[in-house]
Every structure is written in structure tokens, then in C-alpha cells.
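Summary for the funding panel

The consortium committed to producing paired sequence-structure records for every protein in the target list. Below we show the first two records in order, beginning with the earlier of the two.
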Amino acid sequence: MARIENVKLMTVGDGAVGKTSLLMSFAMDKFPEEYEPTVFDNYTCTMVYSKAINVQLGLWDTAGQDDYEQMRPLAYPGTHVFLICFSLVSRNSFENISSHWIKEVRTFSKDVPVVICGTKMDMVEDSQEKIGREEGESLAKSLGAHAYVECSGKTQKHMTEVFRQCCEAGLIFQNIIKNNGASTPATPAESKDSEGCCLIC
């Protein structure tokens, strides 16, 4: 019988990049059509990581707006992995990862692993401002991220891979599993939904 391990996942990134939509789509299979700034919210779901481990995944959502800059770090203690999100169709949100978000995360949680996630994959084809995969992978490597992934909360494309990488990073951080060199960015082939990784409703 699989044992249950706990992972606290903290989601950060600019406002309106799709953090809340991604979490809601994953945890509740529901995609919000209208944007409403988040203050704080959290969800819990159980994810099958392997035959031996089920992960009780605590999904913490934060507001990216400057108004909440003093409040966000209050939720950081006990975090096992940060999911730093940017929009694949917003270069400003991408550049803010290195200029702001990684600095904030490292100030309050020096050693906690990060996963970099490009959201709104479904909008890339129609955008003049799209961020290429090579750019995202290069940024993730320069920041020492556990992985780089791209997804769409709306279509759920590659969504499972995002949270599989987060579970893996959180388990490694807690020394529950060993790091077998999985800290490189996920390739497009690896980014498809894994058969062995799913939610338990």
C-alpha cells in the first residue's frame, strides 16, 4: 500500500499570469473565465506520485500585486517547493522572475527548490510577445531551478507534468526520495501527462 507524504507548494508570480486558474484547473477541474486578484487561498489534493508514494499536495495561492508584497512572505514558512509562474505571452512577467520573484523567494526561503512554469500555452500562437522554450529553459538553468515546464490551465495541456515536477522537488527537498539528476528542465517529450501520476478524487 502506498504511503502518504506531504508537500507544501507555494505559487508566486506576477498578477494575472494564471496562477489561480492553473491551481483551480488542476485541483477542481474548473477554469475561471474572469480574472479576480487573489489575496491568499489554498487547496489540497492527493496525487499519485509512484506505486510507493501518494503525495498530499497543499496548493498555496498568492497575489502577485505589489500591494501584497508585505503579506506574501507570511505564508512562506514550511514551503517545500515554489512554483514561480509567468505568462508565455508576457515578456514583462518573464523578466520579473529574475528581477523580482527569485530574489523574494531566496530572501525568505534560501534553500527551497523552485520550478519555473510558463502559463497560457494555449495563447502562444496568437501572440507577438511569446517567450520561447529555449529562453525559459535557459532562465531555469541560470537560477538553479529543479525544472522548467510550460502548460495551459485552460486546456490542461502538460498540467500534470507541472505538479509532478513540484512533487518530485518537494520530496527531494525533504530527503524522502533521492535526487537522480532530475534537476534539468523537462523536455517537450517528458512534459506530456504522465500515466503514473494522477489525482485521487
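The next record, for a separate protein in the list, is shown here:
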Amino acid sequence: MNDHPSLGLDDVVHQRVRLGILTIAHEARRVEFGYLRTQLDLTAGNLSKHLSVLEGAGLIEVEKGYEGRRPRTWITLTPAGTTALADEIGRLKQLIARVETTPED
């Protein structure tokens, strides 16, 4: 059985934008849609698609509401999202360790 760390990478989490969303949501605990859009340099439509994928996988919760009269959307990492992010980071660290310990030619 092959146990190479790359085999355990989760395509839902590992995609660059979604990994960024999960990381920012982890740091902030609750993050506003506009902040994510700005930080990740995305269009609203593109960000919405990535959020839908993460929400469908149960990794985030999306809450819509108002701040005063302005509509807002907040994103929170779920416990499953926290676990998935930690697992992904662990596998990435394993990959990095393999490169750092590989003798140079």
C-alpha cells in the first residue's frame, strides 16, 4: 500500500482559493464576504462558487444578515472544516519534510 502524503490531499480543501478561504476563516473565526473577496482578489461570483463548494462539503457555515441596513454575509469554519484544514496542513508538512530531507544530487 502506498502511503505517500500527496495521496491524502483533499481536492476540495487543496484548491488554492478554498485553502485561502479556510485559512482566513480559521484565523478570523468569523469573516465577512467582502473581506475574503478583497484579500483573495476574487470577483463576488467566483468567491460565491468556492463558498458553495465548501459549504456543500460541510466545511463552512454561511450566515446572511444585516449590519444596520447593509446586507452582509459571514463565513465561519465548522468543526469538520477545522479538522480538514489541519489534516491538509499536516500532509503538506509531510511533503515539505520529504523535500527537505532528500539528499541533493
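Regarding this second record: The mean pLDDT is 93. Residues 7-90 form a domain with the Arc Repressor Mutant, subunit A fold (CATH 1.10.10.10).
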